[in-house]
Amino acid sequence: MAKLWEKLLSFFGLMEDTEEESLEEVDFxxxxxxxxxxxxxxxxKNMRLVIVKPxxxxxxxxxxxxxxxxxxxxxxxxxxxxxxxxxxxxxxxGATYALDGNMQKVSQQIFVxxxxxxxxxxxxxxxxxxxxxxxxxxx
Length: 139
Known about the structure:
- The protein is α+β, with helices and mostly antiparallel strands.
- The protein has a domain at 50-138: SepF-like protein (Translation Initiation Factor IF3).
- It is built from four helices and four strands, in the order H-E-H-E-H-E-E-H.
- The chain has a four-stranded mixed β-sheet.
- Helix 2 (60-68) packs parallel to helix 3.
- The longest helix has 17 residues, at 82-98.
């Protein structure tokens, strides 16, 4: 206890340190690194794809709310006016980017917007594109 008190006083400069330690005498103890938290991707909750067919720009905000709630959304714009469809896609893709999500174009007017933890397999997208191109060439 006395040594502890002396070390404390010498630390604050109130007492001269009588013992001199060299680096060889000091043992450095390395604490084990803390492991990162692991996220279980196989959770008990089912991932559901939300399918929407918006007709006007006002519906875009609700679509973004689904993405914020970590639900992937398939947006079908086949029956939407071109000017409205462009505004909807611009708004949703900007919000998806801000949320670190991703967007995939499935066909000319069908898009998948996914939150950051959902991966859209681009291979499926490419095979759909190739099939669409092959069908167009056959006609």
